[in-house]
Automatic annotation (TrEMBL):
It comes from Oldenlandia corymbosa var. corymbosa. Keywords: FAD, Fatty acid metabolism, Flavoprotein, Lipid metabolism, Oxidoreductase, Peroxisome. Residues 278-439 form the Acyl-CoA oxidase C-alpha1 domain. Its cofactor is FAD. Coiled coil: none annotated. This is Acyl-coenzyme A oxidase. It comes from the Eukaryota. The active site is at E424 (proton acceptor). Residues 479-656 form the Acyl-CoA oxidase C-terminal domain. InterPro entries: ACOX_C_alpha1, Acyl-CoA_ox_N, Acyl-CoA_Oxase/DH_mid-dom_sf, Acyl-CoA_oxidase, Acyl-CoA_oxidase_C, AcylCo_DH-like_C, AcylCoA_DH/ox_N_sf, AcylCoA_DH/oxidase_NM_dom_sf. FAD binds at T138, G177.
Amino acid sequence: MEGVDYLADERKKTEFDVEEMKIVWAGSRHTFEVSDRMAKLVANDPVFRKDDRVMLARKDLFKNTLRKATYAWKRINELRLSEEEASKLRSFVDEPAFTDLHWGMFVPAIKGQGTDEQQKKWLPLAYKMQIIGCYAQTELGHGSNVQGLETTATFDPQTDEFVIHSPTLTSSKWWPGGLGKVSTHGVVYARLILDGQEHGIHGFIVQLRSLEDHRPLPGITVADIGMKFGSGAYNTMDNGLLRFDHVRIPRDQMLMRVSQVTRDGKIVQSDVPRQLVYGTMVYVRQTIVQDASIALSRAVCIATRYSAVRRQFGSSNGGPETQVIDYKTQQSRLFPLLASAYAFRFVGEWLKWLYTDVTQRLQANDFSTLPEAHACTAGLKSLTTSVTADGIEESRKLCGGHGYLASSGLPELFAVYVPACTYEGDNTVLMLQVARFLMKTVSQLGSGKPPVGTISYMGRIEQLMQCRCAVKKAGDWLNPNAVLEAFEARAARMSVSCAQKLSKFSNPEEGFAELSADLVEAAVAHCQLIVVSKFFEKLQQDIPGKGVKRQLEVLCGVYSLHLLHKHQGDFLATSYITPKQASLANDQLRELYSQVRPNAIALVDAFNYTDHYLGSILGCYDGNVYPKLYEAAWRDPLNDSVIPDGYEQYIRPLLKQQLRVAKL
Ligand SMILES: CCCCC/C=C\C/C=C\C/C=C\C/C=C\CCCC(=O)SCCNC(=O)CCNC(=O)[C@H](O)C(C)(C)COP(=O)(O)OP(=O)(O)OC[C@H]1O[C@@H](n2cnc3c(N)ncnc32)[C@H](O)[C@@H]1OP(=O)(O)O
Ligand SMILES: Cc1cc2nc3c(=O)[nH]c(=O)nc-3n(C[C@H](O)[C@H](O)[C@H](O)COP(=O)(O)OP(=O)(O)OC[C@H]3O[C@@H](n4cnc5c(N)ncnc54)[C@H](O)[C@@H]3O)c2cc1C
């Protein structure tokens, strides 16, 4: 039935102002307004339909993406959209494309690592898409170990050029998005060689294809790397391979903000730290944290709405069965994910602030916060993408069998999302970076330099090593100070324990390798503390709207106490809490689930997702799931005919076969 809201009863239960929560979720009224307008623009334009995507073969899929991406660009120009609006519009198109890398990495790499003159030359071309760029760092043989990249950039003083070369098969660039078939240019990372001496990895702007006929330029071999995980999904993207055979580029195409090469082939280091060559990765990791809350909230929105629609068991006197969302097991799997989506939204917002702050400081030659920014972006990227990838899969299971249908939207969301655990830094490798930062901090305690920012709790190390949890009844776990101290003590004690074990090794690198699994656990504890503390900080702000702050307090409780429950081994092993206190935390968590329950639908409505963007029958706003599933089945090409193609060739002969079957 058209127009009936099957979730209306659920929406009537809401205890807070959903419209105000939408603003909190968006970050500001302005951002909400822009997002809402762009989402509707995309949803109402038939060119951006995506329900047929999973049926398309690779070539059609790719061409379809080109069509949508260029149409999006046309609309962006016709409507004279701002950068903010354009980026929102692209995200609502919801299809990985070369434009993600052009705007998300190529442009930021030039902005972050190019000199003023280089920016003046290249950015206007990129902004008008007169050149299309990719970020060509990873190679067949090396991704995580950036220092191990093999592509060379050898300066030729005779001609004032760099010669870019791929000396081995393993030096072939492998993976860059947009490279396979589209990019005309790339920021290519290579080992700088001057007069036979190596000078580390640097970025170079290299033209790859002709701007006239799109053919690869002489000396360049380029292609797509082939199909990836899942149908549809990330296969809209042309991840590419690239080899150079002594390709020459002018000297001024080395990105020279960090180091300059002079006309006579000498290297000059600016004051800027060498690590700024990795700056684009820091920027993108920060955007990936923001993206994690989007991906997780989409999955949770689908699973929550469907859990309210779906009924199983428990009918008495012929009445309706129980909504599966009322089962405590369903709640204990679903509500922590809902709370995590909100938690990641707020930590993402904070991380964006941190990134802006560090960028401004860098411009003023203050490099003091760079290590913390690196540790935070690396650690939070790792934590949020791991939880989100697992959370999407859990959401699929929460939807039972129908979650496995492509029309639930969950399989494709999962397939598109999981590489986030790998790209922009493998999640384990990134956690090890956080662990290094933690060990360095612990080793410097007492040196007179107090730790600041997210690591400042380490400055209270003596108190945190000795304190004991004061919780006596379940309700005490609602006290933010009790929760924060628990997470601080756990993180501090795990770090100190690792540091103590490390100090027993004569070779610290050997010790670090041997203890790396424990170190990752300590790093996870530190990152979870950051998320919990940023959620509490958010609650300190003035949050208008009836019941909005109250709901966020409940979600913050769910987020922190579900972590405490899940990782109670850590909290118990570090002797901060007793088994009794762990059990009280779990009692309080169950009580909080009951408080989330009546508001669950409204909490996912607050994400303000259009049905187009969600792309899920199970998650549709009106909850009218069954007729839509039934209709969608008939739209499958396999149902175009009653008798399938292949019947005459395979099924009929099978049925008519006259085999002499051996008697059993
Ligand atoms: C609808 C779908 C689209 C969804 C997208 C949505 C949002 C995203 C938006 C835009 C993006 C667009 C699309 C996204 C999709 C795909 C993009 C994927 C692109 C890529 O996938 S692109 C390749 C990324 N590839 C990596 O991610 C490699 C990982 N590997 C490394 O990153 C390093 O290799 C490391 C760190 C592991 C070791 O490096 P190493 O061996 O040189 O370093 P070492 O450990 O020795 O550290 C020496 C000193 O440098 C410090 N340090 C290190 N890194 C730093 C940094 N970044 N900043 C500041 N300081 C740093 C240390 O803290 C230490 O400091 P200290 O000395 O003080 O201790
Ligand atoms: C969809 C997608 C898009 C991508 N887009 C781009 C792009 O646009 N541009 C680009 O340059 N690259 C891109 N990449 C490449 C990506 O950045 C790398 O794949 C990523 O950094 C991981 O590196 P790797 O593949 O070398 O993994 P590996 O390092 O080979 O990881 C393999 C395993 O080894 C483990 N491991 C590695 N090192 C250590 C260590 N020191 N200690 C403990 N364990 C370790 C890892 O945890 C992992 O389990 C993309 C990748 C994907 C999947």
